[in-house]
Amino acid sequence: MAAKSPSELFDLSGRVAVVTGGSRGMGREIVLAYARAGADVVIASRKLDNCEAVADEVRSETGRRALAVACHVGYWDQCDALCERVYEEFGHCEVLVNNAGLSPMYPSLYDVSEALFDKVIDVNLKGPFRASAVFGKRMYDAGGGSIINVSSVSAAMPTPNETAYGAAKAGVHAITASFAREYGPRVRVNCIMPGPFLTDISKAWDMDAFDKRAENDIALQRGGEADEVVGAALYFASEASSYTTGSVLKVDGGTAWATG
Fold it and tell me: Is residue 87 annotated as a catalytic residue, yes or no?
């Protein structure tokens, strides 16, 4: 069998890709990249208007089909409903990106309320678990697919400001390995582990302090731009990663160099 060219390896023509948290930041860039690579896309997040805006952008730029769906992944029934809507609309799905996440600020660990803790776990861990279960089973029954989780360097080295978030993202690493075993060999399950990206969340940062820390703590000495996650997302979604599953790929500028 002849080797595929690079363009063939990364081609997503004929596939449907679902991206949660797909209306902004890294999720939006992943949606646009998949559409440019030939996929029809589903943009899911809590605010339908934002999803519709990205869907319009996809249609006008690429001509691909784009479906906007309001979905709060912290609720299992909404994960189930998202899956049903996708299969009703397209009849199939080959790629799921569990990108939705949140990390609320709090004054101290003592002040973290049960409601805040549950909210962080629900969105960052419970949602990816359920979405992987329902989409993964459909993919397995249909013969194959790719599930891509998005975690964080906080999974490996959380600060006190992101303890619940880091715990949830460490859980994402665990379910990545488990689902890779559960749905192998037909469905590949992998995880992107981003470092600090300059998306909407960075608007709350003290950027002068961040830039100073970056000089010592990040090998590339800067935060990432949202579109710099695209290479990893295309790799895991496409045939380029046909022998890769259960993996966690750091995309962190060298932030997590001390974590192994």
Answer: no
Tokens of 74: 């912290």
Mean pLDDT rounded to a whole number for the chain: 93
What is the tens place of the pLDDT at every residue in 63-116? Answer: 999 999 999 999 999 999 999 999 999 999 999 999 999 988 899 999 999 999
pLDDT above 70 for 252: yes
Domain ranges of the chain: 6-250
Which residues touch 191 (CB under 8 Å, ≥6 apart)? 148, 149, 150, 151, 172, 173, 176, 247, 248, 249
Q: How far apart are CA 165 and CA 181, in angstroms?
A: 25
- Maximum alpha-carbon separation in the chain: 60
The pLDDT of residue 260 is above 60:
no
CATH no., domain 6-250: 3.40.50.720
Select which of 165, 183, 235, 243 is catalytic: 165
